[in-house]
């Protein structure tokens, strides 16, 4: 009777140990954010590949010998041959890999060569690495999107307007003069008859809000002016007539389907530069007329 009681007690202890080990396999490092309960038995092994807590009988087993791996001989890699850069048949200059050629390639090359300052450009109507770099630099400078080096219609239009702007047409005063060519939609600055800010792009009044040609004077400035009728901020505001003035654009400048309500819209860098050059009393000269207004 005593032997049966002892045996039953040992069986009960074994059952309690086994049941407890299976129910409490919870990873305290999980923070409880994964499943909101105990992790299933063997979860750590599945996740990491490492074994779980060893069973008591594993401590009595001898450690198996691990054979030392023999060093393997790796084959010596053969040197690879680098291909020479692809060149154009006529000029021998490297082609622009991944730089698309636009339908106005030769025209853009011609205007950029005339403008200067954007790098080496070969006027041959063929895209090259140097042409691509110059066109990208031009597009970035004048806010043309995307900057991909492609000579598309917007790039050609902007380049033509800038390259054909005649700065001498503006009747400058003795001090600083802001000049606007409404026909070409360009703006520049003179001082004492000399160009101190090269022609850049602008966008003036749209149809029904034509910006008038004439000679004016900056009579009010504000680094950040609020427009009551249109409820928009006008950065680097310089007013010259009838609620019209120079300011940084709040939209994509090269969208010709829209325009200002008479103001002279500028890219950020140009608005900042004209703010630095101008003051109350600065002469403003507008010539020509925007097409379609």
From TrEMBL:
Active site: 247, 263
Chain intervals for the UniProt region annotation (Disordered): 28-103
A Pfam short name: YkuD
UniProt pathway: Cell wall biogenesis; peptidoglycan biosynthesis
Domain L,D-TPase catalytic: residue ranges: 176-287
GO terms for cellular component: extracellular region
Top-rank lineage group of the source organism: Bacteria
Listed GO MF terms: peptidoglycan L,D-transpeptidase activity; transferase activity
Biological processes annotated in GO: cell wall organization; peptidoglycan-protein cross-linking; regulation of cell shape
InterPro entries found in the cross-reference section: LD-transpeptidase, LD_TPept_cat_dom, Peptidoglycan-bd-like, PGBD-like_sf, PGBDSf, Transpep_catalytic_dom
Biased composition (Low complexity): 40-51, 79-96
This protein's UniProt keywords: Cell shape, Cell wall biogenesis/degradation, Peptidoglycan synthesis, Transferase
Protein name: Putative peptidoglycan binding protein
